[in-house]
Amino acid sequence: MTRFSDLKIVVFLLIMTVLFVLLPPLNTTPIRAILGIPMLLFLPGYALIAALFPGKKDLDGIERIALSFGLSIAVVPLIGLVLNFTPFGIRLFPVLISISVFTLIMCLITYYRRSRLPEDEVYGFNFKIIYPRTKAMFNGDTKLDKILSVILVLSIIFSVIILIYVIVSPIQGEKFTEFYILGNEGKADNYPINIESGKNSSLIVGIINHEYSPVNYTLLISLENNTLSRKYIPLKYNSTWEERTYFTPEIKGNNLKLDFLLYKENNSTAPYRDLHLWVNVT
Question: How far apart are CA 197 and CA 253, in angstroms?
């Protein structure tokens, strides 16, 4: 292989990962997870090792691969730590772009450093020597060498398994439902406090499902325990329902309690969430 073949492979994998993570419908395929694993566990560390040790006498192929996993496991959390103290936060897009930029910068440094070395001194990744080098690593001179080699390989495999588990089975957070009402301008103020009996009034009602499963909601609006409106709202997980909801008061009075009651599934005995306003009806 040429002196830059491995860098071309790294850049190609970076581009493919970005495409399969960000672009629909590519980001719904299993290839996204397959590409994401080397993106997190191997590519950043490999690019860093290549930048630090451009010569073939610095490290051999097996050592580079082993250190690539170790440095990736160190670099990626550090990038996340830095992002945590920025306005971007630890989210998919900033993390993906940050890791990609870091890896590309390391590739550019590697390109520059290798270009300054004679052809016969530049490290070039060769698939043909991986197996014999791996075999030699496990046939070490001492029993301790063999044990350390096995521990290293098992550690890498364990890290990959843990990452796959986290991707496939993300830890669920707290289950809850957001329930809110907004004024006619779509803000949490300027609610219609003075309304007329027998005429339509309205408010914007919103529901966001964070229950990690589809939920059938029932929205009930009542004035002094007199039902004004009832609406059934099936909502998928992580979905939002927000609509202008109309109601017509039939009684008059001051400081009347206008209730917005949200029931979950078939539980009609006690509201799951409740909000209220004090209104004057003339």
Answer: 9
pLDDT band at 91 (very low <50, low <70, confident <90, very high): confident
d(CA 100, CA 228): 55
Predicted local distance difference test score (pLDDT) of residue 126: 62
For residue 200, give both structure tokens.
């339509």
Q: Please give the domain boundaries of the chain with CATH numbers for all domains.
A: 5-168 (no CATH), 176-281 (2.60.40.10)
Q: Are 177 and 208 in contact (CB under 8 A)?
A: yes
Question: Using one digit for the tens of pLDDT, what is the confidence trace for 201-242?
Answer: 889 999 999 888 899 999 999 999 899 999 999 999 889 999
Instruction: Write the single-letter amino acid at 204.
Output: I
Report whether 203 contacts 191 (CB < 8 A).
yes
Beta-sheet pairing, 176-182 with 201-210: antiparallel
* Neighbouring C-alpha atoms within 13 Å toward the C-beta of 227: 7
pTM flag (> 0.70): no
Phi-psi region of 253 (alpha: psi -120 to 50; beta: other; left: phi over 0): left
